[in-house]
Amino acid sequence: MPSAPPVLSPEQLHAFGEELDAIRARVVADLGERDVDYINRLIRVQRGLEVAGRGLLFAGFLPPAWIGGTAALSLSKILDNMEIGHNVMHGQYDWTGDERLNGKTFEWDTACPGDQWRHSHNYMHHTHTNIVGKDRDIGYGILRMSEDEPWRPYYLGNPLYAALLATFFQYGVAMHDVEAEQIVAGESALDDEKRDKLQAIWRKVRGQTLKDYVLFPLLSGPSLPFVLAGNATANLTRNLWAFTIIFCGHFPDGTEQFTQEETDNETRGQWYYRQMLGSANLTGGKLFHILAGNLSYQIEHHLFPDLPAHRYGEISEEVREIRERYGIPYNTGPLHKQFGSVVRKIVKLALPPLPALPGLRGSEPGLNKPAAQARPPKRAAAKAGSRTLPAPRTGARKLTAAKTGPRKRAAVA
């Protein structure tokens, strides 16, 4: 069972925030040619893999060509989705002035329109990370992923819904900003704004479908069934991979969820603190991190979402040292361990909570009691003396220019 997170005093939280701001300022000051070279090289590799994959699939009647073509196209779609599309749309390369890398206009090869992703993910998720009732990434409106969410018989299907969401992940993400489940439940109206969003989704899905399941299969002539199967497999592979990486970054054992009351009037330090407690990392080699879009460093990504993601590995040890000094556990582990704990959580939360028995304590914190009783409310604003922690580093670097200082929370999200 992961240990409870520490309660930091306001003074500690202020110093904590300053140390993290200093890391961000240092990286921003160092951005330059190597960052541009990195993303341009990745774009060239992604395009090369797509051309090679589609070309090999035209000879897909030969088993080696089909396997190689499907693998290359799968890798191309993963790179486009994770290391390129997701990160560019976070504004990680806006500072270059290159319109190809403009996070406000970039469009990716997936069903979700870029504008809707920028709102549902960059703003709603990153600003309200793991706040139950605000962050719709907690279960994507389909799953029960928090004990703070009341159980209903519908959630008995949690494992099935998770499998379907993983299989069709790009379409689940596409419908995310429409809040379709609220419309179905009668909690929200299908107004003109949502109709416009649905039309934009339909145009994007239509284009993707025609490209992968009509145009390229027809161009291949007698290889049509092989191209069709290869394209479908590549899209499925990308969906499963993206689902796995994203869920491993937010829902393994040890990640925390929060009530809206706990996060009212957050300071910068408290915001950092919440981002740390609501995220988890994955261990692996360099290729693994690239294919994960460096979202394997989900903790660093949530602290600094607009820094180039390939920098996260460089600062991860410094972030870890700060966390450990303040007594905050650094949640990291291999893919099989983190994903295994996610699967256990999906299954466990499908079931109704066990009734509390008189005279017995629940086996898990918060299992049979409200969130407010399971952990102290406003833990980030606790009074001094609630727990003795290592003194914050007194030599924390201060930001040297206004432009590298902390932005508004929604802007960096």
Placed side by side, the strands forming the largest sheet appear as: 1-2
Number of helices: 16
Mean pLDDT: 86
Largest sheet: 2 strands, parallel
Euclidean distance between termini CA atoms: 30 Å
Q: If you compute it from the alpha carbons, what radius of gyration comes out, rounded to the nearest whole angstrom?
A: 22 Å
Q: What does the overall shape look like?
A: globular
Q: Which structural class is indicated by helix and strand composition?
A: mainly alpha
Fraction of residues in β-strands = under 5%
The quaternary organization reads as: single chain
Q: Helix and strand succession?
A: HHHHHHHHHHEHHHEHHH
Share of residues in helices: 40-55%
Q: Which spans of ≥5 residues are poorly predicted at pLDDT below 50?
A: 361-413
